[in-house]
Design brief:
Two copies of one chain form a homodimer. The first copy, chain A, is mainly α. Chain A folds into two domains: 10-51, Orthogonal Bundle (Arc Repressor Mutant, subunit A); 62-172, no CATH class. Chain A is 59% helix and 0% strand. Chain A binds a DNA duplex (30 and 30 nucleotides) through loops.
Chain lengths: 191, 191
Amino acid sequence: MADRYHHGNLRQALIDAGIKIINENGEEALSLRKAAAACDVSHAAPYAHFKDKDELLEAIKKSVTDKFTGELETAVKGAGSADEALIAMGRAYISFFSRNPDYYMFLFGKQNISAHLQMNKENKEDYPPFLLLRKFYKLHLKENGIKISSEEQEIELIKTWAIVHGMASIACMKGVKTSFDWNDPDARLIT
Amino acid sequence: MADRYHHGNLRQALIDAGIKIINENGEEALSLRKAAAACDVSHAAPYAHFKDKDELLEAIKKSVTDKFTGELETAVKGAGSADEALIAMGRAYISFFSRNPDYYMFLFGKQNISAHLQMNKENKEDYPPFLLLRKFYKLHLKENGIKISSEEQEIELIKTWAIVHGMASIACMKGVKTSFDWNDPDARLIT
DNA sequence: TACTCTATCTTGACAGTGTCAAGTTTGGAG
DNA sequence: CTCCAAACTTGACACTGTCAAGATAGAGTA
């Protein structure tokens, strides 16, 4: 019989299988046993790599967040100015969740966001997408010669993030359909 | 023995027990069997009132949404103008979820929002809080003599909703703490 | 080579879950 | 008074997360 005791890369295989199950049937459908079965492995095998179900979930979230952050960074690459970058980022942000509505609740639901990221517990402001936003916001201030207090900056940052994040959130509410095309070309960011 | 076959008002009792369990231990902790036990009733009794667990969940969501909408309406009552009403509403909106962070994901997570509301399937824009916002936004335009196209109005509405909803959402992200007090007195609404 | 150690995986078990089928009770309509 | 239908109970099933105990095999050591 083949080697039933050494899968080789079970940890990653479980993450991949988990993502596939969630994509096809939603987060509710994911069970440790199904993920294990998808990897042709016994129901308790995952416990060699994850403490419990939550730990697998967190690993999957990290994987998805990495993809999300990657899309934001790609969107920013082609921008000629900080203003363009911010707009592109906002579009990419909304577009990501508009294309994958299930991911919104999966990423932001239930668990503490910092749990699945390598975030500093002391300074909790280093959520990667927010870091990217802050970076280009500061560049935007510099390029346009705007001078405001750092406190005011923080408020503006939150407002900007809130409007984009809020639009993404609303775009994911399947029950609330507005006469609004989330992917139309329309500058509606930056106060 | 007492009457074990006629609870009297089991349906409402299950909803109340469900809310209590969710408040104390989170949505995850709610099971039909626990809610039934809390009502001193057998594990299958809920099926006389709810088709399945989701139907109980929807009933609970409706109950919470009613409370939320009620708070918004109360906040609006004391306002002297539409502008004041809008600001009060925004504060109440954020305050509600800031005080009950678990409710955010409970209400907006997973299920279709329209499922637990008596919403018209044809016109999906009648989410009660949004209706309230639209009402006072139109009043705001009127009071200030602002004239813009209805299309533009809709975009402004979504933007306003998005910034408030987004702030509420961010306020509920326990892992992402910003140097921002969500309850401070500060006019930051209405574009 | 032979021997052990340890991470990895299996098997078996347990309590808890949602759900259904079938039986029991009871108030109220006829 | 009879009978019905709604409300509830009991019992069962498949499925879940989790743990304990055992099996396996590669890697290192002698």
